[in-house]
Structure to design on (171 residues):
């Protein structure tokens, strides 16, 4: 008899924990958010667009995220507003050069169904030819006009340091 009570208690705890996890999980507010693959020569400045795809459960009125990348390959120097947030007032790159916060403060929210460029990331290439790094958005948090928070599947790009010196032809 005691064993059946234990089983019932354990089952109830599992159900409660599962319900709690479902409440904590953030809903999707876009199909994807991130960057495509990019390349650059050592010492070059390279602009990498950061895009959002298929906004839903919005409109999105604020965005915060971190961007993971290897600082021995590329270094983020600055960010510029893309077309989707051209009138947003607060665009902040953290001192760590990885955390980014965006808020319209009266600007236009990103409407449902929208896809396009949110930011332009300006990197300096510090690595050597052949070096690579992932550019991975993490801790993605969107807020809609009802102050509900959500996220998106991160789109992870690879940055590769290349040598585009033309080959020397010998005759």
């Amino acid at each position: 008899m005691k064993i059946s009570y234990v089983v019932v208690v354990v089952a109830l705890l599992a159900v409660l924990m599962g319900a709690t996890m479902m409440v904590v999980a953030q809903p999707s507010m876009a199909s994807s958010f991130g960057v495509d693959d990019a390349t650059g020569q050592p010492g070059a400045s390279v602009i990498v667009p950061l895009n959002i795809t298929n906004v839903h459960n919005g409109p999105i009125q604020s965005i915060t995220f971190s961007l993971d990348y290897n600082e021995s390959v590329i270094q983020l120097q600055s960010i510029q507003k893309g077309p989707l947030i051209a009138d947003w007032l607060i665009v902040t790159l953290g001192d760590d050069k990885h955390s980014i916060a965006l808020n319209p403060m009266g600007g236009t929210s990103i409407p449902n169904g929208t896809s396009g460029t949110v930011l332009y990331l300006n990197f300096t290439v510090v690595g050597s030819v052949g070096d690579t790094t992932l550019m991975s958005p993490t801790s993605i948090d969107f807020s809609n006009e009802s102050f509900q928070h959500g996220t998106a599947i991160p789109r992870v790009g690879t940055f590769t340091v290349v040598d585009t010196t033309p080959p020397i032809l010998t005759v």
